[in-house]
Design brief:
Largest sheet: 7 strands, mixed
Distance between the termini: 19 Å
CATH topology of the largest domain: Nucleotidyltransferase, domain 5
Number of domains: 2
Helix content: 25-40%
Order of helices and strands: EEEHHEEHEHHEEEHHHHEHEHHE
Shape: globular
Number of helices: 12
Radius of gyration: 19 Å
CATH architecture of the largest domain: 2-Layer Sandwich
Length: 359
């Protein structure tokens, strides 16, 4: 295996928002992106999503649930390949993130369910999974892992720039001419989605329309922003359940959502304190980039315009799935996927478990 070989990789991502499976294809030598292929997003069925939600925060799950999640991913891949006329012989590797159930790097523990060995057997393809474990075991936070992909995509873009990813949790990547810095900033879509689901049975607040009419509860916001997480310097990461939102139970839904949106925006604004230089080029990826109310709040908190990454020609929905395709190639080649300034690991290091299908 040589570094000048071009690999065709499929990446799979199921984020902490528990929306479903994102799948993307790209070609890479592990250093550059040669081409980006199709993308799709397949939602989880409501009952399965609820079963996953019920396991959040656990350090073990029923084996049957992990097998079901793996089978869902296998079916997503097979359908994706069929729809896009991709044959198995075209694919060199699958990057399988799995579903994060528990993340606490202070305990040197990060737990993503998804059986890479079973997926390799089902597909008869190489599968890389457990991308975060090696980093955490070596003193890193285990996240974010996408920044090296951001940097690779941004090689010809004016710097410095910052990429905010708003999934279940929010994180930021600072890209300078030489520097690459990344860390979690605070909450993302997860509390917003949880509130509208519990109160209205909806999956999310489309465009932030409900939140738009709300009034921010300043005393609750102040309490949120006093959390010890914000006093810690990066690298740092969060679990989906790191913050307690019980104080919002007595608020009208509009006010609860407005308060969380301001919390997200203010926590993103705090990230500037840790950048080596001022950034005026801000871009947003993930589901949060579609929330008009949230995007406006972030812009006001930063005092800069913010734009969806689509303005760069990137696909806001596909970035993380693409990233795990890219990371799978780097794992195959033994190249680093995490770095001291992105996860806090002691040195740049590779990661991921390579699963070879039985012959």
């Amino acid at each position: 295996m040589t570094e000048d070989k071009i690999f065709t990789a499929i990446g799979l991502m199921s984020g902490t928002s528990l929306d479903g499976v994102d799948i993307a294809l790209l070609k890479s030598d592990g250093v550059s992106i040669m081409s980006i292929g199709p993308f799709d997003s397949v939602p989880y069925q409501a009952r399965f999503k609820q079963r996953l939600f019920n396991q959040l925060g656990q350090v073990s799950v029923p084996k049957a649930l992990e097998e079901e999640l793996t089978l869902i991913h296998a079916n997503v891949i097979c359908d994706f390949m069929k729809i896009n006329n991709i044959s198995k012989s075209d694919i060199d590797v699958i990057g399988f993130h799995g579903q994060t159930i528990y993340h606490n790097p202070e305990e040197k523990l990060t737990f993503q369910i998804g059986d890479g060995c079973l997926l390799a057997k089902l597909l008869d393809l190489k599968v890389v999974n457990n991308f975060r474990l090696s980093d955490v075991e070596n003193g890193g936070q285990g996240a974010p892992l996408v920044p090296i992909y951001h940097q690779t995509l941004a090689k010809d873009i004016k710097k410095p720039l910052a990429i905010i990813n708003i999934g279940g949790v929010s994180n930021v990547t600072f890209i300078g001419n030489q520097e690459l810095i990344a860390f979690d900033t605070g909450p993302g879509n997860a509390p917003l989605d949880d509130i509208v689901f519990k109160r209205l049975g909806l999956s999310f607040d489309k465009n932030g329309e409900i939140a738009q009419s709300g009034v921010i509860n300043k005393s609750i916001l102040k309490k949120f922003l006093s959390h010890s997480f914000f006093a810690r310097p990066p690298p740092k990461t969060l679990d989906r359940n790191s913050f307690n939102y019980r104080d919002l139970l007595d608020c009208e839904i509009e006010d609860a959502l407005a308060t969380v949106i301001e919390f997200i925006a203010k926590s993103i604004s705090k990230s500037q304190d840790y950048f080596p230089q001022v950034v005026d080029n801000w871009y947003v990826s993930g589901g949060g980039s579609y929330n008009i109310t949230l995007m406006k709040a972030i812009s006001e908190a930063l005092n800069f315009d913010v734009f969806p990454v689509n303005k760069l020609g990137w696909n806001a929905d596909a970035l993380e799935a693409q990233a795990f395709a890219f990371l799978a190639v780097r794992s195959l080649l033994g190249m680093p996927i995490s770095f001291p300034n992105t996860t806090g690991v002691s040195k740049a290091m590779t990661g991921g478990v390579i699963n070879i299908p039985p012959r």
